[in-house]
Structure formats: C-alpha cells, structure tokens
Design goal:
By secondary structure, this protein is mainly beta. The chain is about 5% helix and about 25% strand. InterPro entries: SpoVT-AbrB_dom, SpoVT-AbrB_sf.
Length: about 80
Amino acid sequence: MEKTRVFKNGGSVAVRLPKKYALPVGEVMIDERDGVLVLTPLDRNGWPSDLEAMFPVIGELEQPARPADSRPVEI
C-alpha cells in the first residue's frame, strides 16, 4: 500500500496517482463500495473498458437468427 496526496483543483478534489497506477487518458466511472473508491476506465463509447471481463458470458452471446418476414407489405 502506498501513500499519496489529495488536493484541491479548482472546485474539485484531486488525487495524485503514483505512476504504477496510471489510467488511460479519458473518462472513468467512480463508485463507492463500503467506503472504498473504485475507478473504472471507460472506453470511447462510455462503457467500462473491461465490460466483457466483468461479464464473460457477453463474449459467448450470438445474434439471434431472425426468420425472413414473408408477409406482404401494404402501401
């Protein structure tokens, strides 16, 4: 466990992260779990970058087969 500094940055509070904890530049999701702050990097679409790792079954899902619609279209 390492110590670091918490400081004011404008109207926000910032935490200086040691180099070994560097996050990719961009947005993160912040959550509090039992008094512990958790930062999760987000991808460019705003989804957690490790979403598939969080829910492994996502990678196993297939698109459902859709039968061709043979009903006539009325105009």
